[in-house]
Design goal:
Blueprint: E1 2-4, H1 27-37, E2 41-45, H2 51-60, E3 66-72, H3 78-83, H4 87-103, E4 109-115, H5 118-127, E5 134-139, H6 145-158, E6 159-168, H7 187-196, E7 201-205, E8 210-215
Parallel strand pairs: 2-3, 2-5, 3-4, 5-6
Antiparallel strand pairs: 1-4, 6-8, 7-8
């Protein structure tokens, strides 16, 4: 865990280094929902280059201090290996970008990295008594359906009643030679989780590629 003090006025802010614009397509939705939820405690599974983390810091650190937890292996998933991503460089860009965001945050930002697979790292958070701790949980790790379902269940356990659980890549799928594989995309897992927990949640917003739900009961 590390914590930075609020930034000093007058420093010139360096630019973030991003190699893709994936998050830009959903930034407007995040701006609205973060403004409504105003989380102080935030957990994300799958941080990549830190675009979503920096968005949370940039939008909310002017209002209050933040306690942010990021879970990632920085080894990449099946698709990242197939696409030839240099994950060591991706991890370096995450560190670069989040360092900038925290340095220029008006209020202190505590950032805790949980480097490892989400099943182990999120289970540790549950075992440490963090159940019902987070105001906002973002699931954007593995795209394999069994992994997504487990991340959803653990994320829901860690989310407080009234908090928001967000899923990325709801409609994403790999273009495989044999067609769509239901085990290699998030949608079947997300649908199964929502159906099984329908009495405990409300739909907040469902844009094409992301799904936001609010937890209304444990």
């Amino acid at each position: 865990m590390s914590q930075l003090e609020p930034s000093e006025a007058g420093k010139q802010r360096p630019a973030y280094v991003q190699t893709n614009n994936w998050f830009e397509t959903v930034r407007a939705d995040w701006a609205r929902i973060l403004g409504n939820v105003n989380p102080r405690t935030y957990l994300e599974v799958g941080s990549f280059e830190g675009a979503s983390t920096c968005c949370v810091i940039d939008q909310l650190s002017s209002k209050h201090a933040l306690d942010i937890h990021c879970v990632d292996t920085w080894d990449g998933g099946i698709e990242h290996k197939e696409w030839g991503f240099d994950m060591q460089s991706v991890e370096g860009r995450f560190a670069h970008n989040t360092d900038i965001a925290r340095q220029f945050a008006p209020n202190a930002v505590s950032l805790t990295l949980h480097k490892g697979t989400s099943d182990i790292q999120m289970s540790k958070l549950v075992a440490e008594g963090r159940g019902g701790f987070f105001d906002f949980v973002y699931i954007d790790g593995s795209h394999q359906a069994p992994d997504v379902l487990l991340d959803a269940c653990l994320g829901f356990k860690l989310l407080k009643v009234g908090g928001v659980l967000a899923f990325d890549d709801y409609a994403w799928f790999e273009r495989l030679p044999y067609g769509k594989d239901p085990l290699r995309c998030p949608k079947p897992a997300i649908d199964a989780f929502v159906n099984m927990n329908w009495r405990k949640l409300d739909m907040v917003r469902a844009p094409l590629y992301q799904l936001f739900i609010r937890k209304n009961a444990d």
